[in-house]
Write a structure and sequence with these properties.
The termini are far apart. The longest helix is centred in the C-terminal third of the chain and has 35 residues, at 193-227. By secondary structure, the chain is mainly alpha-helical. The relative contact order is 0.14. It has one domain (3-51, 62-227). It is built from ten helices and no strands. The chain is 78% helix and 0% strand.
Length: 228
């Protein structure tokens, strides 16, 4: 078993799972939301540390379209996460309440809400663009062999169906108004807790699948150009 890959997968899994819980604010509640948000911040720092070689190799090697997309979204994730973390500390009423920050709280609250939604989108795209790396680590950790083509296409069709539901959930959860600062108050779904979590997970799947296929298209374009 590849222990390094296991640690990376574990960190990434919990970051994704906690992100879904954070988006479902009505499920977690205010105190748990702040505690889980702090945990995600710590996991993000660990994730960055585990992938620190990326920073030193940013300008090295050949820049393909896929690599340009990957690097762009990594930078966007970094910047957006900083906004989420800073504004989260500013508006905290529990974990960081001892700081007693009173200035700029109104603006920080609006930015925190907007950047949190962007975090879900950007992190999902980031995962999708690195999906081959994720599956590669999973195979090395669990000793999995390449699946049969029929199973691959079955999983792809299921992923597309789930992403289709994610597109509906994206509209139902009013994600776009939050991304564009048109909505500045938390949205509460009237479904049960399990369904709310599933809908947020579906939105994540939507962007993972879209980014994954975009990455595949970029790779196919590169192979086509190299074949000329």
């Amino acid at each position: 078993m590849n222990k390094n890959a296991l640690v990376r997968l574990t960190v990434d899994f919990f970051m994704s799972a906690l992100m879904i819980l954070l988006m479902a604010y009505q499920v977690a509640g205010e105190t748990a939301h702040e505690v889980l948000g702090t945990a995600v911040g710590v996991l993000f720092i660990v994730h960055a540390f585990l992938n620190r070689r990326w920073f030193s190799s940013f300008y090295k090697g050949r820049f393909t379209l896929l690599r340009a997309l990957q690097n762009t979204f990594i930078i966007l994730v970094l910047l957006d996460t900083l906004v989420v973390m800073i504004t989260g500390v500013m508006i905290s009423g529990t974990v960081f309440a001892f700081l007693n920050i009173t200035w700029g709280v109104g603006i920080a609250r609006a930015l925190h809400l907007c950047s949190s939604y962007w975090a879900l989108v950007l992190m999902s795209v980031h995962v999708g663009l690195h999906w081959s790396m994720v599956t590669g680590m999973a195979r090395s950790v669990f000793g999995l062999r390449a699946p049969h083509p029929a199973r691959v296409w079955t999983l792809r069709l299921l992923a597309l169906a789930w992403a289709g539901y994610g597109a509906w959930a994206f509209d139902h959860l009013q994600v776009w108004p939050f991304l564009t600062l048109q909505m500045q108050f938390a949205f509460f779904d009237d479904a049960g807790d399990a369904m709310v979590l599933f809908r947020w997970a579906s939105v994540m799947v939507l962007f993972v699948v879209a980014a994954c296929w975009t990455g595949r298209a970029a790779q196919a374009l590169l192979r086509r150009q190299q074949g000329r």
